[in-house]
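Appendix B: complex inputs.
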Amino acid sequence: MQFEITREYIEQLNQLIEEKNKKEVKKLMDDLHPADIAEMMEDMSMEQAKFIFLLLDGEHASDVLVEIPENERKRFLKELPADLLASKFIEFMDSDDAADVVSELEEEKKIELLNEIEDFEQAGDIVDLLEYEEESAGGIMAKELVKVNENWTVATCLKEISTQAEEVDEIYYIYVVDDAEKLLGVLSLKELITTRTNTKISNIYNPDIKMVNTDVRREEIAEIMDKYDLVAIPVVDEIGRLKGRITFDDVIDFVREEAEKDYQMISGITGDVEPGDKIWEILRARLPWLLIGLLGGILGAVVLGSYEATLSKVTELAFFIPLIMAMAGNVGVQSSAIVVQSIASGVKDFESTSRKLFKEVAIALVTAAIFASLIFIYNTVRQGDMNLTYTVSISLFIVILFASIFGTVIPLVLNRFKIDPALATGPFITTMNDIFGMMIYLLIGQVFFSIL
Amino acid sequence: MQFEITREYIEQLNQLIEEKNKKEVKKLMDDLHPADIAEMMEDMSMEQAKFIFLLLDGEHASDVLVEIPENERKRFLKELPADLLASKFIEFMDSDDAADVVSELEEEKKIELLNEIEDFEQAGDIVDLLEYEEESAGGIMAKELVKVNENWTVATCLKEISTQAEEVDEIYYIYVVDDAEKLLGVLSLKELITTRTNTKISNIYNPDIKMVNTDVRREEIAEIMDKYDLVAIPVVDEIGRLKGRITFDDVIDFVREEAEKDYQMISGITGDVEPGDKIWEILRARLPWLLIGLLGGILGAVVLGSYEATLSKVTELAFFIPLIMAMAGNVGVQSSAIVVQSIASGVKDFESTSRKLFKEVAIALVTAAIFASLIFIYNTVRQGDMNLTYTVSISLFIVILFASIFGTVIPLVLNRFKIDPALATGPFITTMNDIFGMMIYLLIGQVFFSIL
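Resulting structure:
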């Protein structure tokens, strides 16, 4: 029932491309959804991808272009001349997608393309959209939408919508405006269909509508649409005039991308990599974070080196270094992850920062007490040196406390300075906590073994 | 423009609840969106939450009930008698939400409630839905949808839809079926509005429709809806009869929850915790993973203890334990994260497992060579013991290779056995790699310092 792109299918397609069999390739492509074509093009060489792409009809091709991930699209757009882009692809796109594509071009090509667009109104819409900041409601919204005047009747509306709908892919909601274009409310298609045709719109529209201003940021829009289960949300300017709308597909992609970015940060990977990527792409994403680990490890060696006398006198002290490091790292990652996730989810909370810190300290105290006791019991049962037993338990207590606070505070501070708090998760926080943890441990060890 | 729940608002509300001022509280609540009420109820005591909830009208209350997260709803439902649930809340719900709520009740209460529902058809729908597996299309879908017969005209359709739409919150798509209820295609409201009223549906519907079978799993549904930007997808049985539909809001929540779960796994937290949660809830989510870290640390101490002679003879060997551990941990987390994320994203890849492993080994070899060289240069420059220099470089090479393969294979194996591969990320993989890394390091150290 569901069409599946199999390995055999791809082999057949590659064969046909190699034979330059335009007719058969086009026939295969015409049956495919744009998202499927875009997915296959990602795994092809530029030559192959171009061959397929230029065979498609304008509308189909423009849908494919929208589905290609931004990075690869940038490279792809370089290969296409501006006049072809304008006449064959941009023309078929919604204004938000067109603005995205245009913004990815080099300055010169951008201007050339904008002047090549025949539909002057569309070119104007694109230029308008490019004025807004990329991550704001204005930068994401599409100009295409269906709106009706509050003074019209249902019959007039239905007629008007038929005309307006030609430019809009999916209607979802009908926005109701006054004579000054101010957004008043919303009308669902359902209401329109189920109401008598001579009813006036002002009598049936729903004034209880969620909207956002053009400068609201993408995170907040995602949060509102998700919370209220909205398929689309209207965008208005400072004086409430309807400017555009944002649909759910733009927001889903964003939510997914943000979640992936945080996941990659905590696992020490930069950028979006998959096992299917090229080896050097994967390496580039992984090496920087490992370098942090290496530098941390060297710093750790220097720290331990400075305690050489202590360690050679009391070798057993070295045995519990892994334990101290593991606990410091794990506690730090947990604390930072909770903070980062709560910032990312955008959930309103009414706790002040001081109350948050107080709570984290309370949690850390309980955790520290539990694990210090457990390791105390272990070391007592195995009848180890009592000095070592005290050293390990007391330093584990302090290290857990320290790592918790550190893991909570650093992301909060980064966020305050508008730096992505996710930077403070993963290898970064682990490395910092490892080093501080060892220093605390060895200092306490020196006290108990009277080496100071 | 956007209503904000402030701390002042909540204080005012709490004040009114304390005074048992039903009239004022109800007035405040009637202006709020169900999602906002549900959010506030989460921070209230059971008594307060019940007080508010029982003031609401049936329809409003049922919407609030749907918005409460499952865990808290379960506790809340225990407080409400079955007959009240049936008459005041379930009646207003879509079949999928009603089935969710009913499935959370204890067996006895469930049967009592089902028999209390006055609308026999609705009770039947709920019982039907409960038959499906919870995570399958059948278990998620709602029975409410709008469908038309291919032989009708547009005029008949519009009339029929007015009737059917009463039960459906949002129409999104109109499904076209034949006389045997077999799903043939889809009609957008836009087409219906823009087509002449005497046209036959069979001439205008779009037969190119994505659909899923009742037993398709939630992951796959999310993937299809996301890829093709669908607001809703129809669900059919084995012989293609239309059974229900799934809307985007069910899928967004799922995508978000899955991403959060993976994030929590890698950061060593179980369950959904936020800084605003109670202290014991946060502790319960964190302690189990820290216990793994503690056990790993103790095992590490045992391993190092078994090399006591070596370590007391060559104290410098201890200096590089943190480096080996940090690199093993970071490499392992990276490898496992890439595998887990690619499994979660559900992206089709045509690489065989053996090719994946081959590539991971290639990446690991390059990484290992780079970092072994770097640490070799560092140790040579600082003119350390040459035996130590060789030991650290060679063991770092082997440890990185080992940790990469281990981090890649374990999640793949778990996934093969239908266990969540995310289990193999975070504290688990770090702890395993720490221990193996140290063993490799000390063994090689013994060779170079001829202690074996």
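Chain B touches chain A through 123 residues (CB under 8 Å).
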